[in-house]
Structure formats: C-alpha cells, structure tokens
Amino acid sequence: IRKLFIFLDQIVALLSTNITVVSHSEREFLIKERILSVGQAKVLGAGTIGGIDLNRFSKKQKQRQLQRSKLGYLDNDVVFAYLGRLNADKGLSILTDAFDILFPNHPSSRLLIIGPDEDGTGKKLNDYSSQYSSGVVTVLSFMRNPETSLISADVLILPSFREGFGLVILEAAAMGIPAIGSNIYGISDAIQDGQTGQLFTVGDSFDLSIKMKNMVTQDDTRTKQGFCAYQRVVHSFSQENILGCLLY
C-alpha cells in the first residue's frame, strides 16, 4: 500500500507545474523518497502555507486569567495542552503515559486536551481522565475557536508520529506558549530545540515525561522559550510574511 501511494504521489508531482511544500524538512523527505527531484518544489519562507493570524492568536493576559479560572486552574498549576484531531496517529497514548509518569512527583501538573474524536480515541481519553481528580485531566470536544481555551496553557504538546508541519505549534507560539513535540520532519521545523521549545524521541513516553518535567521545574526557561517562540512567529511566520512569499 505504501508503494502504491508513493507511486501516485510521483505521478502527481510529474504532472504538476508548480509545487509548494509546507516545510523544509518535508521537502527533504519527499526528495529522499524520490517523489520530488531537487529544485522541483518550493517552501514559502520558513514554512507553512498561509502563515499565522497574529490578531486571532495573540497574548491576551486578561482572557488567559479568565479561562484558567473557568477551567479551575490555580496560578501555580502548569498546564500542558494538546490541540488537534483525536486519533491514534497523533500519539495521544504516548502523552497520557508520559503524564502518568510525571504527575505523582509533580501534582501541580495539568493536562488539557482539545479536539474532535475520529477513531474512538476521544472516548478513551474521557475514560482516562476519570482516573484523576476533577480538573487534573480535562478533555474538550471540537470547538470553532479553540484558541479561547488554548490560551490557558503553559506548554503545548504535539506527540504525533507523523506531521507535515505542526501549525498548532506556531499558533501557540503566537500566544507566547512554548512547545514540546516529536522529533520528526515537520515538527522539527516548527520547534527550535532548546530555544522555542523541546523535541523528544518519537514514541518515547519516558523521554516526553522528562521534557515535561523540565517545563514544570524550570519556570524561567519555560518563560524564555515562550518569548523566543513568540518572536520567531512574528518575524518569520506571520500571514504577511508567508503571503508575501506566495505573491512575490
């Protein structure tokens, strides 16, 4: 099946006159898989297709405080958030395993999961949340304006097994929220390891728990990485920058 899809992608690439790839690392992967040839495709600026709407995703301290209060978070709680589709490929089982390792020694940790259920993963997560006291693990279903809840987070986590870019990482970054993500192509473009967040070994819940622990115990580092993430989005991933690359 994989060979069939590679062949179909090769046909699409062969018949295309202009190809835009969402990230530099994905383009390198497609060249390595011989789907694209060198120089056949372009990436807009630092990546993404449309950039980030900095008016929609922005630092709003008053809204953050209101949302954290609504969700029952205390000032010293460190909230890890996942935002996206709820399915097995997103690595959510890795995230819950990592949280199980983290929480006993760091009971101020909180887990917020937001997204539509696709394969029954959402139901499993609701069952999982019931193992903890109320408010420790919160699962919210699909919402049209997820940024209104995401703003309450301290750290975004994207534990996917495969990802074209990980746009949500930049959306969170625009709010000053650093990220932890799988060290895979796409996500490695969205996170500068040690500067705007941290990368962990894909599929390794123990490594993820270590990175989460670092975020809990190193407040200054977390704040600094969030600020660096914000600056990077403004300078490299705003809609104006990316659409400018598309037009010119």
Structure report:
The chain is α/β, with parallel strands linked by helices and 248 residues long. 44% of the residues lie in helices and 14% in strands. It is built from eleven helices and eight strands. It has helices at 2-15, 24-32, 61-71, 92-102, 121-129, 147-150, 167-173, 187-190, 205-217, 219-237, 239-247; strands spanning 19-21, 41-43, 78-83, 109-114, 137-140, 155-158, 179-182, 197-200. The strands form two sheets. A six-stranded parallel β-sheet has the order 5-4-3-6-7-8, with helices on both faces. The longest helix has 19 residues, at 219-237.
Structural class based on helices, strands and sheet pairing: alpha/beta
Approximately what portion of the residues adopt beta-strand conformation? Answer: 5-15%
Oligomerization category of the chains in this entry: single chain
Order of strands across the biggest sheet? 5-4-3-6-7-8
- Residues in helix, %: 40-55%
Uncertain regions: pLDDT < 50 for 5+ in a row?
none
Determine the number of helices (DSSP H or I, runs of at least 4 residues): 11
Radius of gyration, CA atoms, in whole angstroms? 18 Å
Series of secondary-structure elements, N-terminal to C-terminal: HEHEHEHEHEHEHEHEHHH
What is the molecular shape? globular
Distance between the termini: 38 Å
Mean pLDDT value: 94
Q: How is the biggest beta sheet arranged?
A: 6 strands, parallel
Q: How many DSSP-defined strands?
A: 8
